Automatic annotation (TrEMBL):
CC per GO annotation: cell outer membrane; periplasmic space
Short name of one Pfam family: N_methyl
Entry keyword Transmembrane helix: yes
NCBIfam families for the chain: IV_pilin_GFxxxE
Transmembrane segments: 13-35
Chief localization: membrane
Localization: Cell outer membrane; Periplasm
Keyword Transmembrane helix in record: yes
Membrane topology type: Single-pass membrane protein
Record's protein name: Type II secretion system protein
Protein keywords: Cell outer membrane, Membrane, Periplasm, Transmembrane, Transmembrane helix
Length: 154
C-alpha cells in the first residue's frame, strides 16, 4: 500500500474548498436578495394598510382637510392610527423622506381638492357635491421614494 492511496491529495482538498466557497457565495447572495425582497413586500403591505386606515379616518372625520387644501401626515412603521406630532411642519413628502432620520417612516399626503357630482339629464345628481379626497402614502425604499394612492368620497 502506497502513502498516496490512504487519503485525498492536496489538489483534491483545494478543489473541494473552492466548490464549497462558490456554493456559499451563491447561497448568501440568494439569502440577501430574499431578505431585501421580503422587506420591500413588508413596506408595501404596511403602506396599503396605512392607506386604508387613513381613508377610514377621513370618512369618520378623524382627519379633517379643508376644501382645496392638502395636509401631510407622518407615521412610524408601527402605527397606522396616530400620526407623529411634528406632522404640521411637513410641506412635502419628498422633502420629509429625504431626511435620514425620517426614511423609515411613512408620509401621507391627503388632498381635498376635487368635488364629485355627476350630471344627469335633469341636472346635478346631488344637491351638494361630495368632496373627493386623494390619499397618497409615500415611503423610502433603498433610497427611492415609492408611493401608493387612492381616492375616496365624503
Amino acid at each position: 500500500m502506497h502513502p498516496q492511496d490512504a487519503g485525498l491529495t492536496l489538489v483534491e482538498i483545494l478543489f473541494a474548498l473552492l466548490i464549497l466557497g462558490i456554493l456559499t457565495a451563491v447561497l448568501s447572495t440568494v439569502f440577501v436578495s430574499s431578505l431585501q425582497s421580503n422587506a420591500a413586500a413588508d413596506q408595501r403591505t404596511r403602506a396599503s394598510q396605512l392607506m386604508t386606515a387613513v381613508s377610514q379616518q377621513v370618512a369618520q372625520n378623524t382627519i379633517v382637510v379643508a376644501p382645496d387644501q392638502t395636509r401631510y401626515l407622518a407615521y412610524t412603521p408601527q402605527s397606522n392610527t396616530a400620526f407623529l406630532a411634528d406632522s404640521n411642519t411637513i410641506t412635502s413628502c419628498d422633502t420629509y423622506l429625504s431626511v435620514a432620520d425620517n426614511q423609515g417612516n411613512f408620509c401621507v399626503k391627503v388632498s381635498n381638492t376635487e368635488t364629485f357630482n355627476p350630471n344627469t339629464s335633469s341636472g346635478p345628481l346631488l344637491s351638494t357635491a361630495a368632496r373627493l379626497y386623494t390619499i397618497q402614502v409615500n415611503w423610502s425604499e433603498r433610497g427611492v421614494t415609492r408611493n401608493l394612492a387612492t381616492k375616496t368620497l365624503k
